[in-house]
């Protein structure tokens, strides 16, 4: 999404940081060597580590973006929603709901998450995969942030998860492209969430959150269900389901906008 609160799960990450965290700062090659050993200990193949880290250098633009980014919204709900819940988006989302009606119904039966909310998330994050999913190599981005000493352990865990995505064969290294904090795919999963919640819903043997609509929507629903989503219950502000949505995004303004978008999709 264009006004991104720096990833979806920074404050609620459950993917474990490496037990013997690599030392941040210092020599970057030495840091990568330490991370490579951590990855190997976690079961990532040496060939994946070697290919992923070959010729890697820190990305100064990523560091600059991270230092000026703020995780909270500066706009009110009314101001933000007015720019996001717009007729063109609602029209496209409704058309896609019809196109994917059988898929959405199957997901709702299995996970209990309404089709309207899934469509709202999918639309606001990347305009249903047609918008900005990021253009940065995820491994380089995360290696840069892990090397930086501000939140090194957090991003070391994300870097290991990204290497696991490649090692599992879910995405090839050339296609592991994302945003400024390493978010991947059509609903912008951090790598740790990709590994934990991603589902191969199209049955092709890979969890592909960049290209597979079934995988994208089912994985998004799985994240919510795993964190306590109550099927059939309301999800407006003040409800338990609204709090579950904080596992997606902690911003109240953003979650209220998702609810509004879902309501508009439910209108004739």
Polypeptide structure, described:
By secondary structure, the chain is mostly helical. Helices cover 53% and strands 1% of the residues. It contains 13 helices and two strands. It has helices spanning 28-41, 46-53, 60-68, 77-84, 87-99, 101-111, 115-126, 138-147, 152-168, 191-197, 213-226, 240-244, 252-266, and strands at residues 136-137, 177-178. It has a two-stranded antiparallel sheet. The two termini are 26 Å apart. 43% of the residues are buried. Residues 1-19 have low confidence and may be disordered.
User: Main β-sheet: number of strands, strand sense, barrel status?
Assistant: 2 strands, antiparallel
**How does the overall form come out from the CA principal axes?**
globular
N- to C-terminal distance: 26 Å
The helix content, as a percent range, equals 40-55%
> Average pLDDT value?
91
Number of strands: 2
Strand order of the largest sheet: 1-2
Radius of gyration: 18 Å
In DSSP terms (H or I, runs of 4 or more residues), the helix count works out at 13
Beta fraction of the residues? Answer: under 5%
Elements, N to C (H/E): HHHHHHHEHHEHHHH
**Contiguous runs where pLDDT drops below 50 for at least 5 residues:** 1-19
How would you classify the helix and strand content by structural class? mainly alpha
């Amino acid at each position: 999404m264009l006004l991104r609160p720096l990833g979806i799960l920074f404050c609620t990450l459950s993917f474990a940081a490496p037990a013997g965290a690599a030392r941040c700062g210092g020599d970057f090659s030495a840091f990568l060597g330490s991370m490579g050993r951590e990855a190997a200990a976690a079961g990532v193949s040496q060939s994946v580590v070697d290919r992923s880290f070959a010729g890697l250098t820190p990305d100064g633009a990523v560091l600059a973006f991270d230092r000026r980014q703020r995780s909270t919204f500066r706009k009110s709900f009314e101001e933000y929603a007015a720019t996001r819940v717009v007729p063109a988006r609602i029209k496209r989302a409704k058309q896609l709901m019809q196109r994917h009606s059988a898929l959405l119904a199957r997901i709702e039966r299995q996970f209990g998450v309404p089709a309207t909310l899934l469509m709202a998330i999918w639309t606001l994050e990347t305009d249903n995969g047609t918008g900005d999913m990021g253009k940065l190599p995820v491994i380089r981005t995360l290696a840069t942030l892990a090397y930086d000493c501000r939140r090194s352990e957090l991003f070391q865990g994300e870097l290991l998860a990204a290497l696991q995505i490649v090692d599992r064969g879910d995405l090839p290294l050339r296609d592991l492209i994302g945003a400024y904090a390493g978010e991947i795919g059509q609903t912008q999963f951090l790598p740790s969430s990709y590994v934990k919640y991603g589902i191969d819903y199209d049955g092709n043997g890979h969890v592909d959150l960049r290209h597979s609509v079934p995988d994208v929507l089912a994985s998004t629903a799985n994240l919510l269900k795993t964190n306590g989503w109550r099927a059939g219950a309301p999800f407006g502000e003040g409800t338990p389901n609204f709090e579950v949505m904080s596992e997606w995004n902690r911003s109240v303004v953003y979650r209220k906008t998702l609810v509004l978008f879902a309501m508009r999709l439910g209108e004739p």
